[in-house]
Amino acid sequence: MKLAFITPYPPSQVTLNEYGYHLTRSFLGKNGIEKIYILTNNLEDNADYSRYATEGLEIIPCWNFDSWFTVLNLRKKLKELQPDAVILNLQFMTFGAGKIPAALGLLTPWMCKLLGIPSVTILHNITETVNLETIGMANSKLKGKLFLWIGEQLTKFILKSDLVGVTISQYVTILKDKYKAKNVILLPHGNFELPERNYVPEDSKEINLMAFGKFGTYKKAEVMIDAMEILQQKYPHLKFTSTVAGTDNPNVKGYIDGLKSKYAHLPNVEYTGYIPEEKVSQIFWDSSFVIFPYTTTTGSSGILHQAGSYGRACILPKIDDLERVVEEEGYGGAYFETDNAESLANAVSYLVENPEERKKIEDQNYKAAKGLPMSELAQWYLSHIHQLVAN
To answer: Burial of 144 by CB count in 10 Å (0-12 exposed, 13-18 middle, 19+ buried)?
Structure first.
């Protein structure tokens, strides 16, 4: 069987690149797999993909982020390759920061249907549960309603996929009730490879608060940095650091430069810039707590799973979607009121002053990260793909 994956892939900085990396690699060595193609976006220098080349995977850059022609480029490549099935790793901004190219790219599942190629889409978010204003997609109620309507139409095209997996049970309910979809299932996020356990040092006088990802829309680092200042005053015998690990969200270019200017007076804020795959583990191991400075969520959090696989305690905002994911998938953490630095500082204080509770959460998260390895998830995909191909 020849499989094609449509997904961002490192060192591309497009959202879901890391998930695409772990997902595709989990299919290596599976029975009956003859060829794996990764149809990913072009870089300034596509030779950079060689850093993540793996025997058995053929990386094929064939579409451009923010291009209006992505679906046509993918159609041409799929007709050339003639795979037996396609797996799409998608969220609503996979194909562009601009609204039109992002929307046009999401016609790809429908295009696969027209080509007669069986397809499975893993959809990481749905418009019904996302605050469009918060993520930079709409700055007024009228625009919000318009984009919600557009999102509904795009969802219908995504549902043309033979099978659509979503990572949160609430999404299954919404898609079945609202769209009368019969091809939607709850698809676990799956856990990345578990590295060797690396514990937070006991009695350390240095505490590193780390937030990871793309910043500026629903993920803003100010609340973490402000909380760090509160904590430093509260515990003068300890040294607190805030690590902003990642880059600007494409919709808010210049956000991190703004942070650097705003907090230039603080020597204990670190900005990593883009983190290549091979350095991700060190960023998590260097952290004492993984902070989620979210104002809303856009689906299941890959960072939550990473925090678990590295055995770190999470400091989480009280947001329904996120709390539901944490509970359903067996993770744990300390909670704070959204966008409230004092509340975040209190959550960190609780775990600083109660190290046994911190260790309990670390163990809980590491155990949850063992729950469903990507290799088992790949087997689940294959069993469904075999049925689709047979039909």
So the answer is: middle
Nearest to 195 by CA among 32, 316, 318, 370: 370
Lowest mean per-residue pLDDT among 42-51, 57-66, 88-97, 187-196: 187-196
Question: Which domains, and CATH codes, for the chain?
Answer: 2-190+372-390 (3.40.50.2000), 206-369 (3.40.50.2000)
Three-state secondary structure of 368-388: HHCCCEHHHHHHHHHHHHHHH
* Residues 190 and 23 sit within 8 Å (Cβ to Cβ): yes
Q: Which two tokens stand for residue 147?
A: 């984009």
Q: Which residue, chain included where needed, has tokens 């670390």?
A: 362
Note if the pTM is more than 0.85.
no
Please give the Cα distance from 369 to 365 (Å, whole number).
6
Asked if residue 347 has pLDDT above 50, the reply is yes
Q: Give 264-320 as a DSSP string.
A: TT-TTEEE--S--GGGHHHHHHT-SEEE--BSS--SS-HHHHHHHHTT-EEEEE--H
> Can you give the length of the chain in residues?
391
Residue 138 has pLDDT above 60, yes or no: no
Distance between CA atoms of residues 261 and 244, nearest Å = 14
